[in-house]
């Protein structure tokens, strides 16, 4: 089978929330391509496991524990990556929490603001710290993990959907701001991604709507015309493409990776 080359100019990356799941898979694919990567997570055990799992890949791996909702922790992730690798070319803002699953009138102010603080504030803090280094790079890339829930309603998930819609707006505005510096900024909008997180979401949806788990899961699968969940590797593949030279003129976009669940 013919193989197409996917050259990645950027050699130094930082990824938030990369101890498990999508973040770890993104880190695996980048380090396998020879990119040096600083990985962050709030969970020290998960971070240690990720560091061990990535140790045999060609790229260098640096583990930096920290809470994405704390600006100083996100600045430390960037600073330590720059100190270790000599600069920064790629920032992947993967961090995100599910937030509460219940009607808006039952969501507390603290629950709402906490979801925004992590899902939107964490991306802002990391990006703010990274911008001077990305401007100095010859291949600056920012990739924000949003969601198809930032494009269409998701019942009983107002904090999450609000935050993810904010990520799309943040991405578009930042893309305009950084374009003169040849830094591209894009968002990926995953649909339902196979893994522990979506299983927890399904359980919460079933509980909040008082329906069986099997029914909630079937509805979520059938929401896609392909009737399948997205795989973590699908998201990582998209990150790799956006980091590559082939995507150098793609910026300000929110790319759906949703098995057709959303097409706009």
UniProtKB/TrEMBL annotation:
Highest taxon in the source lineage: Archaea
Signal sequence region: none
Pfam families: adh_short_C2
Annotated GO biological process: monocarboxylic acid metabolic process
Alphabetical list of CDD domains matching this protein: SDR_c
Similarity annotation: Belongs to the short-chain dehydrogenases/reductases (SDR) family.
Name of the protein: SDR family oxidoreductase
């Amino acid at each position: 089978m013919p193989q197409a080359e996917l050259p990645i100019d950027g050699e130094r990356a930082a990824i938030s929330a990369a101890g498990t799941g999508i973040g770890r898979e993104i880190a695996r694919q980048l380090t396998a391509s020879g990119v040096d990567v600083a990985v962050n997570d709030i969970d020290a055990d998960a971070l240690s496991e990720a560091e061990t799992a990535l140790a045999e890949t060609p790229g260098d791996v640096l583990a930096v524990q920290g809470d994405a909702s704390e600006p100083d922790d996100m600045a430390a992730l960037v600073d330590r990556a720059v100190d270790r690798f000599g600069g920064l070319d790629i920032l992947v803002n993967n961090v995100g929490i599910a937030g509460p699953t219940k009607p808006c009138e039952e969501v507390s102010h603290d629950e709402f603001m906490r979801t925004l603080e992590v899902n939107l504030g964490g991306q802002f803090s990391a990006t703010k710290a990274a911008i001077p280094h990305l401007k100095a790079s010859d291949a600056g890339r920012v990739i924000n993990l949003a969601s198809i829930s930032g494009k269409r309603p998701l019942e009983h998930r107002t904090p999450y959907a609000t935050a993810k819609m904010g990520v799309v707006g943040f991405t578009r505005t930042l893309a305009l701001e950084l374009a003169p510096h040849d830094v591209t900024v894009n968002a990926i909008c995953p649909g339902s991604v196979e893994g522990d997180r979506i299983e927890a979401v399904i359980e919460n949806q079933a509980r909040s709507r008082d329906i069986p788990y099997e029914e909630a899961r079937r509805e979520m699968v059938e929401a896609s015309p392909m009737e399948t969940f997205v795989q973590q590797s699908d998201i990582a593949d998209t990150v790799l493409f956006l980091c590559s030279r082939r995507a150098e003129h793609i910026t300000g976009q929110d790319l759906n990776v949703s098995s057709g669940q959303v097409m706009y």
